[in-house]
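Translate sequence into structure tokens.
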Amino acid sequence: MKEELHIGVCEDEGVAAQHLLSCIEESGIPAHCVAFTSSEELLAEFRQGLYDILFIDIYLTGMTGVEAAAKIREVDEDTMMAFTTSSTDHTLESYRLGALKYLEKPVKAKDVRETLELALLKRKTRRYLSLLIGGGLKDIPVNTILYFEQRDHAVMVHTTAGVYRTSQRVKLNDIEEKVPFASFLRCHRSYIVNLHYVMELNKELRVFSMKNGDKVYIRRQSLKAASDAFEAYLFQTAREDA
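Result follows.
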């Protein structure tokens, strides 16, 4: 799994932010932290899969932390969140957003450590794809993968956080065996697509239009199978949301 937790801290009070960062460091848990001073700054930089957990102050100047969290939940259901606040007025609202913890300020080092330990435990239950990227092993959250693309002897992994190129000789057939999930479809000799990120299927052009604007090609012989699989996936997700 990942060697360290990737943490975002959104706090507009300098002293409170430094105290929280110190508590994270004192926990002894390896972590890479990025600090934000407003909800707007956090939302501008946020990408699905970038952070394991976000510590968000509820009473931020401008857009509140709860409002920012709600916007994040519109595009990301998995990033863990912990709210920090001097009041318990928004406890219920924060847990409706799937908050991992609700920490009263000034936060205690013990509570921060327990939150990070819980985040580590929950992260272990998630699905990751381990690939050699840039000379090192990288664990990519499966739910952030848009599609795979074969290029020469390498595979390009297109994710919500960016594009990664494998640094070893990898065939798409090898990748296909590692992602045996219902949302992934081999639609072309050079592509495996995650149907979760497909916006539409153009049968005339034989392409999947992705939510990020990319196009994924469909092999002529696979067009009907791809169309059936996409319709079945949409039907299944509609049933689950009902």
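Note: The domain at 128-241 is CATH 2.40.50.1020 (OB fold (Dihydrolipoamide Acetyltransferase, E2P)).
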